[in-house]
Amino acid sequence: MKSNQLIGTENVAVTESPSLSTCTIHIERRGGRGDAGARALERHLRRLSGVHDVDVSFRTGDARITYEGSVISEETIRDAVRDRHVSIQDESETATDEVSTRSELRQEAVFVGLTLLGMAVGLVTGWLEGPQLLMWAGYGVAYVFGGWYGLKGAVETLRHRAVDIDLLMIVAALGALSIGAPFEGAMLLFLFSLSNTLQHYAIGRSRRAIKSLVEMRPDEAQVLRDGEEVTVPIDDVAVGDVFVVRPGDRIPLDGVVTSGEGTVDQASLTGESVPVPKEPGDEVFGGTINESGSLEIEVTRQAHESAISRLIHMVERAQSEKAPTQRLIDRLEQPYVLGVFGLTIAAIAIPLALGSEFTSTFYRAMTLMVAASPCAVIISTPAAVLSAIASGGRQGVLFKGGEHVEAAANIDAVAFDKTGTLTRGETQLTDVFVRDGLADESLTSDELLSLAASVQARSEHHLARATVSEAEARALDVPDARRFQSEAGKGVRADVDDGTIHIGNRSYVETVLEDAAIEGLDPGLDRLRTLEAEGKTSVLVAREHAGNATVLGWLAFTDTVRPGAAEMIEDLRSLGVEHIVMLTGDNERVAQQIADEVGIDEVQAELLPEEKVATIEDLVERYENVAMVGDGVNDAPALATATLGIAMGGAGTDVALETADVVLMGDDIGKIPYVLGLGRRTRRTLTVNLTIAFGAIALMVGTILLRGIPLPLAVVGHEGSTVLVSLNGLRLLGFRE
After folding, report:
1. How confident is residue 413, by pLDDT bands cut at 50, 70 and 90?
2. Which of 102, 543, 558, 600 is the most exposed place for a label (fewest CB within 10 A)?
3. Eight-state DSSP code of residue 293
């Protein structure tokens, strides 16, 4: 056994409870189809106090354990893995492991070739009545090399007191040999090992499709040091360093443009089909291509924290998580295989008890064993789901697990956040009004804007950013604000000069200022309603001094609908989405205007964050499967509540990557129909695969019981269906919609 070396494991907090964590431990890969060792390790870990969920796969090389940190430590879990004599790989070995996996695939291919050669020699020699020694030597080669990986898997299975498909195939091949049918046994082993190799290739290709992203990131950067360009390995580049990128170069690290203008091809990361213009202040991402213009970029994230590194990591982690269909099949595999053995024994014992001849009875039983084996069933789901995850990753769409691919297929209703999702989120201040009849008649609109900007400068809200941007554009002198406070979904306040400036909507006035006497409140609220009727978002600006408040004026804002939003809504309807809702904290008139423009069915306006959650819960009750689309920051609770949370703009947002089930790495709203379309196509592929797999089993078993078929035909049907579902799942790598 290899020495037990520890890989760097990653803890990720689980949203259901702050006491739950998840660790992923990379373990020694196991060859062959046998997965009994994984099942045995899962059972062993589940018995540990504090462990909530376990998912182990020797095929992927991952053991993923969800546990309660207050009850059990990660080190105890590692020790439990070692107790089962399972090697844990060191992080430095992962690249070597990838190379060894490819080497093993080549070795499997060579073994398949030798099996075919040995089978052909044995068959031709028998036909020509050649030397018996040569015939049996040929069949011997076929049995040894064709059964090598199957025998290893079977032994590993039995060591864990379990049975699996490898054991079925080995027993069937030896059974055929024992009754004088060596060709049938050799053919079984040849097709079994061939389909196994093709499965490994298919699954490996879906994984390599996303791992190829890492090759898009340069190994070095041209960093400016003392005015000179110095070539530095990207792992040695620090946050704050400035590097230079020329036309045609790949951008090595995430950063912000400090000098220069150009266009950047971000298709590899965000899936955007056209290059994106960049100028000073714009964010750029490692692995993307600078198409035109020379750029100087200040590093904002180190190499291991870059968007492309996070994308690769998240997709690899997602591929290790199984879809519900796959988990069900895994649970049924062991009892199904035991059932096949029981059926085979009955197919031998009952006819013999009734006086049938042994050789023909045993031959039919071996044929039945091969036909009933569930190889195609077991490979049908991962072949499709892993391909779907890889396909999405290449389009800038990150599914954070196979279960989310299946969830996307069942969505009946979609809820959208308005600002930054359906709209650009680039809110502009359009109007600054000073109230008529104000005691301080000298107050100008610029002075009112200056007071508002002093308070809003402390806020991250999109209305606040628009206010500050307009003040900067007018080059206004903005005073300092003190004691800033924010009321989520309502407004803000802060002390400016000798009074407190309040900026908020009607809800803010009715709650925060409910006990204050407010001069000019009625005309102020009337003006808000007028502005809202014009489709503008508006807020009151009031000054409070010595317990008395006065409305100073109003600010009005507008936002613009994203290009393609209406077409995206139509695409969702064509996919069968029954109901589309818009959720916003904005006023109802503004929200309704946007909804009418893009074709939304229902509008829920003036919602606080907790009210968005309640609305999602209500939608789930009405439609069962609901997707929520937001920006991944202020919509985090609603994203977590929905059946499927979809966050936009994840390339630059850490919160989006941690909160949502699906992350659109770019801001392309048109990718939302792609998410649901890919889910639906995956569901159809799974249906076809399972129909092929179970159909082939039912057809062959029924025919064998009623009429009987030759063992070679059962072998072709069994292994042919296995290869067919593998290749059908692989087609999802090319999905475009």
Report:
1. very high
2. 102
3. S
